[in-house]
Design a protein that fits this description.
The protein is mostly beta strands and 425 residues long. The protein has one helix at residues 2-22; strands at residues 45-47, 52-55, 61-74, 78-87, 91-100, 103-113, 123-125, 129-131, 146-148, 154-156, 160-162, 168-170, 174-176, 184-186, 191-193, 199-202, 208-212, 218-222, 228-234, 248-255, 278-286, 296-304, 318-319, 337-342, 348-353, 365-369, 375-384, 391-394, 397-400, 406-416. The protein contains one helix and 30 strands.
Length: 425
């Protein structure tokens, strides 16, 4: 009996820790996207003993900044927590047809800030999201029917489930991941099921509306107020609809409106379609107070580039079908960059990106100053990765992807104390 009790305790403990790391997202660490451009934590990443990890294959830097604390909710869910996540693989890519010197049928590939980067270039606050890709463009392999986990990793959904012997099985109305994460998606109900029993339900825009275990314990997310996520706890016994939650949190966004671009040929006619539209403004999370359940702790986000004054050219932002001078539209994505996060105690994280003109590291995070006064710094170098990603076929159109064969990888990391001296150096 004692052994059985210990087994159950360990199970609850492990589930709770996994949910805290993955923000109640289930088994989200295994990647479905190509390893050359993979985001999020992956097996083989170097855990440097802090808030950052580095992918040992493609050099992607991942940073996880906790927002609030861990909140117990009970049941199979155990507990949950929120995080702001950074990935130095900052670009997504789409393609569109091009004509150059009278030659049609060419393909131009454009880089743009990831649609899930809602807190500035490379930074994401997410509870998970479904995506069907970018309309009006040809999306890369994996750009449609994809689950994006809170750590930035992606998981493709297929109509069949691959079996170890090389065969496959199908189930009417369901899609599956085939990357070892064992996720199952039901088309009609928009419910994504995880192997630990967690269920995430999504709306037509791909945003989660309920995250709960099989017993109905979890979170309800409401989007009825423009640019606001209202997150409320619910439990299966006393409050199944989350009408009187023990705790609630709210996530607030604000719109970004860049100045109008000059007309073609001085700018690309489709550039504004791919620019960031909203950014994270502030987050109010429940604070523990014995006298007032409505006490909140606020995290405030501040940015550079909201006036359209930060553009990045180069670093694989455009890959053109041909290159004669003046024959192609310029492509210099205007981006918003996270500058600082003010915590509830008024201490701050401060972010410094590499200069937009830096050949290898353009727009990527150079340093992060911590609330304690110390700082972390990263240098990047080009890394050539296997060329199998260079050519893809999508709906009979050819993808040319040199951006997937030479990546900007973390080459050096430094930790400094509050006086600017190297720690351990």
């Amino acid at each position: 009996m004692e052994g059985e009790a210990m087994r159950r305790w360990l199970y609850r403990r492990l589930v709770g820790q996994a949910l805290a790391v993955a923000m109640a997202c289930g088994s989200a660490s295994l990647q479905a996207q190509h390893p050359n451009v993979a985001r999020g934590w992956t097996p083989g990443s170097f855990d440097l003993g802090g808030i950052d990890t580095v992918n040992g294959f493609n050099g992607n830097l991942t940073i996880r900044i906790p927002i609030g604390t861990s909140y117990p909710v009970g049941g199979g869910m155990g507990s949950y927590s929120f995080s702001l996540v950074y990935n130095s693989n900052i670009w997504d890519h789409v393609s569109t047809g091009a004509t150059c010197q009278g030659n049609s049928g060419l393909i131009d590939t454009y880089a743009f800030p990831s649609l899930v980067s809602n807190a500035g270039l490379g930074w994401t606050f997410s509870l998970g999201r479904l995506s069907l890709g970018m309309p009006a463009f040809t999306n890369p392999p994996g750009g449609a029917g994809t689950y994006y986990a809170p750590d930035g990793s992606s998981h493709l959904l297929f109509s069949i489930l691959a079996q170890p012997d090389g065969s496959s099985v199908a189930q009417a109305g369901f899609k599956f991941t085939n990357d070892g994460s064992f996720l199952r998606y039901h088309d009609a109900s928009r419910v994504l099921e995880f192997p630990d029993g967690m269920r995430h339900q999504f709306n037509s825009q791909g945003l989660p509306t309920r995250i709960e275990d099989r017993f109905g314990n979890g979170l309800t997310i409401d989007y009825s107020t423009s640019n606001v996520w209202e997150i409320k706890e619910h439990n299966s016994i006393s409050d199944p609809l989350g009408a009187s939650p023990i705790r609630s949190h709210s996530v607030h966004f604000r719109s970004v409106s860049f100045p109008a671009l000059p007309p073609p040929p001085n700018s690309h006619p489709n550039q504004t379609l791919l620019e960031q539209k909203v950014i994270l403004d502030y987050i109010d999370v429940a604070a523990f107070d014995s006298n007032d359940a409505d006490v909140k702790a606020r995290y405030t986000f501040r940015y550079a580039g909201e006036q359209g004054d930060v553009s990045i050219r180069g670093d694989g932002t455009v890959i053109q079908g041909c290159h004669p001078s003046g024959m192609e539209y310029p492509w210099s994505p205007r981006v918003v960059q996270l500058a600082e996060i003010e915590l509830p105690d008024h201490t701050k994280y401060r972010m410094t990106p590499w200069d937009p003109g830096t050949a290898t590291a353009a727009g990527r995070l150079q340093s992060l100053r911590l609330p304690t006064g110390g700082s972390m710094e990263w240098d990047y170098l080009p890394r050539v990765v296997p060329s199998g990603a260079q050519e893809h076929w999508v709906t009979n159109q050819r993808w040319i992807y040199p951006a997937w064969t030479s990546v900007s990888a973390v080459a050096k990391r430094r930790l400094k104390n509050e006086y600017g001296a190297l720690v351990g150096g």
